[in-house]
Each structure stands twice: as structure tokens, then as C-alpha cells.
Amino acid sequence: PVIRREDYQPFPWIVPQTELEFVLGIDSTRVTSRLTIKRNPETESISPELRLNGDGIKTDMVMIDGARFGDWSMDEGDLLVNLPGESHTVEIVTHIDPSANTALMGLFASNGMLCTQCEAEGFRRITFFPDRPDVLSTYRVKMSGPKDLFPILLCNGNKVAEGDGNDGTHWAEWHDPWPKPSYLFALVAGDLVANSAPFTTQSGREVECNVWVREEDLARTDHALQSLHRSMKWDEETFGREYDLDLYNIVAVSDFNMGAMENKGLNVFNTKYVLADPDTATDADFDAVEGVIAHEYFHNWSGNRVTCRDWFQLSLKEGFTVLRDQLFSQDMQGEAVKRIEDVRILRAAQFPEDAGPLAHPIRPDSYREISNFYTATVYNKGAEVIRMMRTMAGAEDFRAGTDLYFDRHDGEAATCEDFITAIEDGAGLELAQFRRWYRQAGTPRIEVSQKLGDGDGLDVTFRQTVPDTPGQKNKGAMHIPLRVAVHCRETGALGEEQLIELRHDEQTISLPLAGPVPVLSINRGFTAPVIIERELESEDLVFLAAKDDDPFARYEALQDLAVRHLVAAASRELDQAGRAEGKRLVCDAFRSILSDPALDHSMRGELMMLPSETYLFEAMAGSDPAGIRKAEPLEIHKEREQLKTAIGVTLKRELESLYAQVADIPYDDPAGRGARKVKTQIAALFAASDPERAAVMASRQFDQADNMTDRQGALMVLCGLQHPAREERLQAFYDRYQGNALVIDKWFTLQALSLHPEVLSHVKTLAEHADFTMKNPNRVRSLYMAFAGNPQGFHAQDGSGYRMIADVILALDPINPQTAARFVSPLGKWRRIESVKAGLMKAELERIAVTEGLSRDTFEQVSRSLDG
Ligand code: ARG
Ligand code: ZN
To answer: What are the backbone dihedrals phi and psi of residue 67, each rounded to the nearest 5 degrees, phi first?
Structure first.
């Protein structure tokens, strides 16, 4: 069935108290739930029906008001009882088998421990309950189990009692004083140790903070714990939000569908976002740990204290919390580089979604399976939309808006509309038209043209369109803020930045000049998640790339230069001379980046990154409004490699001297991080231009590395080479890290992502490796998500890459539907790709669609991908 946003009805009952009792066992756990329920005074419903959601569970016994009750029935998985009267207690006993739970939703076993994942609809796999985010209840939980297997027993809130049984068992009772929806429930039982350190809040309360892991992982938890402390402090200072319990627990588990989960007082994390030390985690891994720890912590206010009324409002908590974690990371790591990285993620993951069959607004209108809507659109575009509000209001007024939002809705299940209204009232914005960002899917495109005005201004004309998306046509104009400045190419004068706001299909705005040869710098800092289209002289882009004072605009100009050249070349629009000219321009811009003394190495490394092949795919398929031009991933790949070759050849001397400068900067040096980024970039360029040199460089980097960033970077380069050093170092890496799951994931990923021509057969071999398993989501993704993002392998001429991914979906669907469904979107790109490949991709989708017994998750994604 399709669930629709407009059909929302409040639940006819409230559940003030929930008492749960767990008798824990890996393959059999008994759950007793005692609910106090009352009629919801806010609904008119007079039906006596009480519907308690269930999913694949059965009840052993139902008691109503203390008496055995036989008159219940089942509907789909739900339990129905009819209860005349105002208030009752409902007691239900269920049995579940956590070890059989390979979907990893509800209560499941991982590495000998038990843990839960309830968002969005996992609680109904544990016990019968109104499993919807607008039913808030206060939980008291008692659990017991064998002390040897489960020495640690954790739940939400505070531990209020504990004791030993006389049969080798022990028990603990937990109470969470904060009413919460069922999706925030969590329970963990296992053999765990903690890294702990207290945090003192701004009002002077001491919070015990623990990071729980298996003993062998304890040495890699300091970064997570420190990140938590930094997040707690930052949220007090930046958003005025203080933590509200005396205990904050984080548990790392190795089998997990997503990154992490913000359960009240008991976050459950994928180990990938907890464990880090220099020997096993890259700089990017350290940042990801910090970012995800912050994200889950920030949810305590944006998500838990104020939660969502229904799942259509998911972006209310996710978009806002992603913005909060981005702002935090900007403050921790540096604003310019973090902003560029966030835009890169948006373009790589969200723009394609917005342009494809799975496009949906940040607040969707309908779904079959809500798990399919934990998307880059809801999360990352959602964050961009709120960031635009912040840009228009200014940080200070925006804070007044968020203060009002938290004040007004604390303890409630709110809507996106509530959030917008609070920002309007508190920040003094008018957001009537801006609300379209919540309703309309698709990335707006803005065509920009300019001419010198009569006076002393530059007349800039903006024409915006929002493309049609599945189920949505003829959309209204968006309210779009843009930070702009007009520089002068002749004098080098930089114009002053101003914020303009577009509201019409077409409008012309006059901007002040800084000198006689105007160069428009637009969407500075990536103010709005839009695509800018403009005819600009290449000299202007070269100027912006070298001189713009906005670091993002500088990055963007370089990207533009490369995109223009690569899209034209891949579309076979360039003759010999045009091709040479395009490469020359990119090389010139690169040269100024390599030698600019004003850049730190971190920023230099960022600027040296060529546009990704996914972004080029979008640019190529989207550059023709009639939709006739299709993307040719193999051409894109070939041209991009050739451009790397050209840069490597033309700038060999400059690259060598930069490499020599950065090669021996120590790990802990403040410039170390930037140096590592630059080093690997250079080796990667040489891999295209001079493989022998690259092999020497990367082997040396690998052999001398004292950290994972250098080691992984070097191995990445070697993986693309047909050189004996490749196998030697792969083996050395495997031998060194055998048994460390997160690092072995990297070993799979590096090979699946590699530029080696035989990548497809490598992946087939790796799937047979003793360390490969379909049961662990990290491992599955490490091999196959990486492969699906490798154009050379995935888009192989004969369709074998598509077949491989379709086979993965079919094999994984019965085991873990949520993770299986995530593999559908690469195949969903078929409409925008040249016709032979399009046919092969579509055939694979059709093969999946006719398979019997498909999960709701995969069925929904496959049918949308075929229809859209
Ligand atoms: N709320 C979590 C987060 O973003 C994500 C959990 C999603 N889980 C799921 N099964 N869809 O922090
Ligand atoms: Zn989240």
C-alpha cells in the first residue's frame, strides 16, 4: 500500500507509560510489554479499535486490565483489539529470535552481542506498539540475561536498579524520564568495555560519557570520545542547547545498516564511525567519526526533544541536524575546505537523485517503504534548504529563529511547517514562496546572462526553471538567495559581495562594477543548491580560478573549466585544436594552484581534485535541456584520464617539486594533513602520465608510511597500475591488517574502485574470498557499492557490470532488504545514458521486477526506477 502525507490522522490513543521486560537470549528473547493507554482527547474518533503495529511477530498472550484476553485479531502484521472505555492497561508477551534477524531491524545479534535498531519501523519487530513518531511514552525497561554472555546491560535513560539472579543471570532496570517515540528506543547487551570521561555542562551538571566497544577496540576510541565532548560544548555555545541526562552512552556494533542512530541517551553506531587511530583510519575517516558523533549528539535536541509528527517530516530532524553537524565540522576543520567537501557530496549523491527516477521533494508526498527515503535529498538537500534560511537571516537572527523553534515545540512531534513558521517569526524572514523548496523536487537551473548597463552597473539577467520530476510538472519559481560579486579582470579589483534574492522566472538585477572588464562571481560559498548555466569566456574562469576571494568560487571556476572541456570532449564536439586548447586552459589554472603561496596544502589538495565522473555524467546528460544528449560514462572516463595525463606531462616539473616539498612533512605537523592530500593527488596524476614513476612514488609512500592516509592513498594509486608493485603491496596490506574488519573493508574497496582494466574479474574473485560475506553490510558495500561507483567496471560494454549488481540485489534482498534496495539507484540511471547501455540496464531492472517474493523495499525502488 502507498502511504500519503495528506492522509495523516492523529492516533486515537495516548500511551503515557510503557513498561518492557526482556529475558534475553541470542536465539530466543521473551518480551513482555505493559502499556497504559487512554483515549486521545485531541481526536474525535469514537471507534473502540486499538491497532498495535507488528511486523513478523506473534503474541503468546494478551491481557487487558489484568485479565487474560482472547478476543484479539491480526491484520497484516498488526494486532487489533476493541476496547470500549477511556483507559486501560494492555499486556502482551512475544518471543523473538535475534540471531535469525539478518535484516538488522528490531533486536538483532552482532558479534555475540544483542542490540537494536528501531528507526523508522523496527520497534514493531520487537513488540506490538503504536509504532509511529507522534506517540510519545515514558519507558521503564527491565532486562535479564546470562552474565557471562552479557555482562553489560544498557538501555535509554538512567539505570535505576540492578542485581544478580541465582542461575548465572543478572538483571538491570532502566528508566528514561523523557517521553519519546518508539523509534528512539534502544537496548544493548554484550561483553563490552568503555572509554569514559565526564563532561560538565554550562549549567554545571556532570554527564558521564561512555564509548562502549569490544575489548580489542578500546585503544581506538579516544577520538570518538573527544569528538563527543567537543560536540556537547559547541551545541551549548552555538545553539544554546545543553544535554539533559546524567549519562550518555555510545555503543559500536559491526553489523549496521546505516551510519549511526540517535536513540535517547544510548546511541548505537556502526564501528566505522567510532573507531579511529592513525594506523588504521585516514584523515577522512577521522573527520567522518567526528561528524557522525556530532550528528547523533545534535539529534538530542533536533530529533529527540523535538521529534517528527510523521515520517514525511523526516527532513525536519535530518536536514536540520545535517546542517548543524556541517557547521560544527566547519568550525573544527576549517570552513572553506569543509564547504567544498559538502558540495562535492551533494553533487555526487543528491544531484543525480534529483535528476533521476527516484527524485522526491525534501518532504516527500508518498512512500511504500520509509527506509527508502533516508536519502541524500532528505538529508543533504534538506540541510542546504535550511542553510539558505540561515544565509538570508544571518547567523544571529537565525539563532533567534531556532531558539523559538525549540521553545515552542519542546516535547512535541512537529512538522516542517512548524519549523518554517518558527524561523519566520523568530528570525524575521518571510518564507511564503520559499516553502516551495519543501514541495518541489528537482535541482533548479539558472541561466545567467549579462551586459554592461547604461550607468555604471552590470545588468545581470537570471532565468530559472525547475525541471519536471516523477509526478511533478510545471513548477513555480523558487525563492533563491545568491551571494554575488563583480570583479574586474583588467585591474584585478575584487568587487564587494552582496546577497541577492531571486523570486521570478526571469529577472534582471544591476550590480555595481569594480572596473572596466567585469567578471561575475556567482553563487559564492554555494549559497543555493542550484545549477548555474552561463556563457563565460574561458579567460574569465581562469581569472576566477586564480584570483577570486571566495574559496568556493575559486574551486568552482576550476571545476567549470574542467567540466566544459570534458563534456565537450566526451561528446566528440572538439577537433584536435579545441582539445589541445581545453587541456591547455586546465593546465594553466592548475599551474597557478600548484605554485600559489597563499594557499595552504589542504586547500591546494581540494583545488587539485578534478570533477568526479558522476558529476560529469550529470553535466553531460543535463547540459541539453531537450534531454536528447545522453551521458557516455566510458567516454567521460577516457577523457578524464587523458586530462590527467596532460596535466601530469605538462606540469611534471612543478608536480615533482611540490611532491618533494610535501613528501616528508611529519604526520603531526599542522601542515601534515594538507601534505598527505597533495601527495596522493600528485601520485594519481602520474599514474596517468608516467605509470613507472607513479609506481616508484607510490611504493615508496606505501613502504615508508606511518599512517593509514598515506598507505591507503599509495595503495589506491598502485591498484590502478599493471605493475608487480600492485600485488605485492595489496598482499602486504592484507597481511598487516588481517582480522581488522574496517581495514579489510578498505582492502576490498580499493580493488573494487580501481582503474585497473580487469576490475570486473577482480571483483568476481574477491566475492569468493574467505573474508567476504553478504551478511555484513559494511563488507557488502565495501565491495559492491564501490564497484557500482566505478564507471569502467559497472558500465562495461557487455553489460556484465549491470548483471553483477542485479545479482547482488537478488541475493541480498532476502537477507537484508534495506541494504539491497540501496543498490537499485545505480541501475536507475538508464534513461540518461546512451541507448545500448540503457537497454542493458533496463533489462536487469525488469529481471528483478518479475522476481517473486521481493521485499517492499526493493520492489518500490525497482518499480520507481522503471516508471519514473
Ligand atoms: N536517524 C539516523 C541518523 O541519521 C538514521 C537511521 C536510519 N535508519 C534506518 N534504518 N533507515 O542519524
Ligand atoms: Zn540523523
So the answer is: -120, 145
Torsions phi, psi for 486 (to 5 deg): -115, 115
Q: Where are the alpha helices (DSSP H) in 299-439?
A: 314-333, 335-345, 351-355, 376, 382-393, 395-409, 416-427, 436-439
Residue 293 CA: which ligand is closest?
A: 1
In what helix (H) or strand (E) does residue 208 lie, and over which residues does it extend?
strand 206-213
Residues of the chain with pLDDT under 70: 623-627
pLDDT value at residue 868: 80
CA distance 590 to 682: 12
Atom 7 of ligand 1: nearest residue by CA position: 119
For the Cβ of 260 lying below 6 angstroms from any atom of ligand 1, the answer is yes
Evaluate: CB of 745 within 6 angstroms of ligand 1: no
| Closest by Cα among 132, 157, 188 to 13 | 132
Site to probe by mutation for ligand 1, drawn from 55, 261, 304, 379 as the one with most ligand atoms within 8 Å of Cβ, is: 261
Give me the phi and psi of 333, to 5 degrees please: -110, -10
Could you read off the pLDDT of 848-867 as tens digits, one per residue?
999 999 999 999 999 999 99
445 by Cβ neighbours in 10 Å (0-12 / 13-18 / 19+) ranks as middle
* Ligand 1 proximity of 857 Cβ (cutoff 6 Å): no
Residue of 303, 282, 202, 206 whose CA lies nearest to 245 = 206
| DSSP-assigned states of every residue in 648-710 | HHHTHHHHHHHHHHHTT--TTSTTHHHHHHHHHHHHHHHHHH-HHHHHHHHHHHHHH-SSHHH
Residue 562 grid cell: 574542467
DSSP secondary structure letters along 626-648 = TS---B-HHHHHHHHHHHHHHHH
Q: What number does the ligand 1 atom closest to the CA of 818 have?
A: 10
Rounded Cα distance between 823 and 25, Å, is 33
Residue 855 has a pLDDT of: 98
How many A from CA of 749 to the centre of ligand 2? Answer: 25
List the grid coordinates of 644: 590527467
Half-sphere exposure of 632 (CA within 13 A, CB side): 16
Bridge partners, 81 (sequence order):
50
Contacts of 78 by beta carbon, 8 Å cutoff, 6+ apart: 51, 52, 53, 54, 128
Q: Is the CB of 759 under 6 A from ligand 1?
A: no
Atom of ligand 1 nearest to the CA of 379: 4
pLDDT score of 691: 98
Q: What is this model's ipTM?
A: 0.97
**Residue closest by Cα to atom 11 of ligand 1:** 371
C-alpha 732 – ligand 2 centre gap (Å): 37
At 2 the pLDDT is 98
532 closest CA partner among 461, 600, 470: 461
Ligand nearest to the CA of 260: 1
Q: Looking at ligand 1, which atom is closest to the CA of residue 117?
A: 10
Give the up-direction half-sphere exposure of residue 155: CA atoms within 13 A in the CB hemisphere: 26
Whole-number average pLDDT of the chain = 97
- 651: Cβ below 6 Å to ligand 1? no
Task: Write down the catalytic residue from 296, 353, 618, 635.
Answer: 296
Q: Extract the C-alpha cell encoding 12.
A: 486515537
Q: Is 628 exposed, middle or buried (0-12, 13-18, 19+ CB in 10 A)?
A: exposed
> Cα(179) to centroid of ligand 2, in Å?
19
For residue 295, report the distance from its CA to the centre of ligand 2, in Å. 6
Q: What is the pLDDT of residue 626?
A: 67
- Length of the chain equals 868
User: Cβ(816) to ligand 1 under 6 A?
Assistant: no
Please count the CA atoms within 13 angstroms of the CA of 712 that sit on its side-chain side. Answer: 24
The H or E element spanning position 833 is none
pTM beyond 0.95: the answer is yes
Query: 132 alpha carbon to ligand 2 midpoint, in Å?
Result: 17
**Active-site residue flag, 262:** no
- The rounded Å distance from CA 158 to ligand 2 centre is 23
